[in-house]
Amino acid sequence: MDDDTVFSQASAGASATYPAQCSSLRKNGFVMLKNRPCKIMEMSTSKTGKHGHAKVHLVGIDIFTNKKYEDLCPSTHNIDVPNVSRSDFMLVDISDDGFVSIMNDNGDTRDDLRVPEGELGQKIRDDFEKDSSVIVTVLSAVGEEAIVASKLATN
Fold it and tell me: Are 82 and 145 in contact (CB under 8 A)?
């Protein structure tokens, strides 16, 4: 390999999740419950019982489907935490089949995400019809991506 070899993209080889001790998790943080990335809504720790382990009761909402999941985990055990990233994109267009065309700060565009269902999707469509400068927030975790929020851009 010569010194002038150029790498187009480098990856740290990061995993989609990392382990964390159950007792170190906090409300509004993220955790994997039933193999789904969830935001922790409720958390309670029980006292140590006859067999010596305090248990952490976790209640979370799936960050992509809004489905509720619960789990019980000994406080000293490790549980997977998803690597969640949040990015803002400028909404360029909404196609007839429900896909959005979005652009990041570098000017790169992508067309692989759908307008979300329900109120958020309707709000994005309405804002885009009224004002062409709409910013959407995309959440990515464990190989999934979804639009989770939108706002009007301030010039």
Answer: no
User: Cα separation of 22 and 68, whole Å?
Assistant: 19
For the chain, the 3-state helix, strand and coil shares in percent, each to the nearest 5, are: 10, 50, 40
What is the distance between the alpha carbons of residues 124 and 134, in angstroms, rounded to a whole number? Answer: 8
Question: Angle CA(62)–CA(15)–CA(88) in degrees, nearest 5?
Answer: 55
∠ CA 68-74-69, nearest 5°, is 5
How far is residue 64's CA from residue 82's CA, in Å, rounded to a whole number? Answer: 13
For the chain, 155 residues long, give each residue's pLDDT as a single digit of tens.
Answer: 455 555 444 445 567 889 999 989 999 999 999 999 999 999 998 887 677 778 899 999 999 888 999 999 888 899 999 999 999 999 888 888 888 899 988 888 888 888 888 898 899 888 888 876 889 999 999 999 998 888 887 75
Q: Give the span between the Cα atoms of 123 and 136, in whole angstroms.
A: 11
Q: Could you give the residue ranges of the DSSP H alpha helices within 64-139?
A: 118-130
